[in-house]
Amino acid sequence: MCLKNPLKPQYNGGIVVNPEFNNGLNGWTLLGDAKIENNVSSDGNKFIVASKRKGPYHGWVQVNHGDDANVAVIFKTQSGFQHAAWAIAKSGCWSMFKGGLVVNASGPAQLYFERLTYGRTIFRYKLFSQEEWTSHLNQSIEKVRKSKVAIQVVDSQGKSLPNATISLVQGRANFPFGVAINKNILNNKGYQNWFFSRFKYTVFGNEMKWYSTETSQGKINYSTSDAMVNLCKSKGVSIRGHNIFWDDPKFQPYWVLSLSPQQLSAAATKRVGSVVAKYKGQVIHWDVVNENSLQFFESKLGANASATFYRSAAHIDNRTPMFLNDYNTIEDQRDGASSPVSYLNKIKQLRTQGYAGLLGIGLESHFNTPSQPYIRSALDILASAKLPIWITELDVQTGPNQMLNDKARATLSHEGFYGTTNAKGYFETSLFHGDYQAVVTHPSMADSSFHHNLTVIPTYYI
């Protein structure tokens, strides 16, 4: 958000001391030898100006006419430093930080602004309890992922049956939800039965990557990925194309690392033309450059390398969205290269460098200890790009705090739902969008039961 005039702090400034500088510099101190003073704009806005700064944490400065600055908010508590938010401070306007963090200690905290070589910012903070976060998440789940459902049970003459027992067992979800698969699924019926009974979406672990399909230069082999594609298509499962390139030097085909820039450009051009033409129209997305923040190809081929790949892929398959796919954007607040604002900069760079086709945001989501406030704020920032957002590689490390893991199990489980019809034969509940089998029993049915399949869809489809 970039405004001509700043808004008032929400929640009266929340937990920040003297958020609008109505009491001078009370609550605001300086680290280092910089100079700090109050100032007031012509429209009455109060702000701080810092000058002669020599370190990364030295307060605020007014934006000069220069480049935008990537700025972080950092909290220092008894447990150490924690990143809470990122923003891009732009010349000539006010930028807002949006973020959050979980603090597992009580007491005073210090607020730092990192890399404010250029920047001028306004702040909003609010302290939420875990109960408030859980309530908010549940409300969002009800709104986005579930619908109210009323099921009426009647007999063969159309007469309502009260006190009938309904058991609902969820099958495949109706919204995009899947897991990665590997080549072992090709000859394992148990694996196939487990996967295809639950999921409508998938991505291949390694089988479509460059180092798997061209192990030796010029010797391209798609036999394994072909077999997996054909199997998924026969079962109606959608596939993400992962990936055309991986911007990490450790995960290139071994022969790529010895190529000259000219040779690498030729090999990369051939790779795009080969894999995209091979699976054109058979995948729902292309991860064109995976983990672009590592910039292997940019370091070899120049700053326009990624944009060139995106344009080339879209030229071959212009109906399939081309995705960025990066890590640490919502997992780790400390990684400035992958922060939400850095991600938006990558999107802007692709557009500036000439890619005008379909585009999507992929988030790898490899969590250690998830921070729900930061995840939410990061997604809000990314949503400002108005592009599709997919969580592409979700996993959570084993540990004592598994909020995200527990929430995923709770919201996407395949446990049954049970209920009893009322006096008019109705059973009402809220169900996740997807396929269900309903099993109905009633005293009038003796020992028999009635089975019926149904699908719950979002109301905006109707």
Describe the protein's architecture and organization.
This protein is of the alpha/beta class and 462 residues long. Helix content is 24%, strand content 28%. It contains 10 helices and 24 strands. It has helices at 130-144, 189-196, 210-213, 223-234, 261-278, 296-301, 305-316, 340-352, 372-383, 403-412, and strands at 2-3, 35-40, 46-51, 69-77, 80-89, 94-96, 98-99, 110-114, 121-122, 146-152, 165-173, 178-181, 201-204, 238-246, 285-290, 322-326, 359-363, 366-367, 389-391, 395-396, 416-420, 426-432, 434-441, 450-456. The strands form 7 sheets. Strands 12-13-14-15-16-17-19 form a 7-stranded parallel sheet, with helices on one face. Strands 7-5-4-8 form a 4-stranded antiparallel sheet. Strand 14, helix 5 (261-278) and strand 15 form a beta-alpha-beta unit. It is flat and about 85 Å long. It starts with a strand and ends in a 6-residue tail after the last strand. Residues 55-65, 116-125 and 409-415 have low confidence and may be disordered. This is GH10 domain-containing protein. InterPro entries: Galactose-bd-like_sf, GH, GH10, GH10_dom. It comes from Datura stramonium. Belongs to the glycosyl hydrolase 10 (cellulase F) family. Residues 162-462 form the GH10 domain.
Characteristics of this structure?
7-stranded parallel sheet; 28% strand; alpha/beta; 462 residues; 4-stranded antiparallel sheet
Number of contiguous helices: 10
**Share of helix, binned:** 10-25%
| Strand numbers in spatial order across the main sheet | 12-13-14-15-16-17-19
Structural class: alpha/beta
CA-atom Rg in angstroms = 27 Å
Major sheet summary line: 7 strands, parallel
Keywords: Carbohydrate metabolism, Hydrolase, Polysaccharide degradation
Pfam families: Glyco_hydro_10
Family: Belongs to the glycosyl hydrolase 10 (cellulase F) family.
Protein name: GH10 domain-containing protein
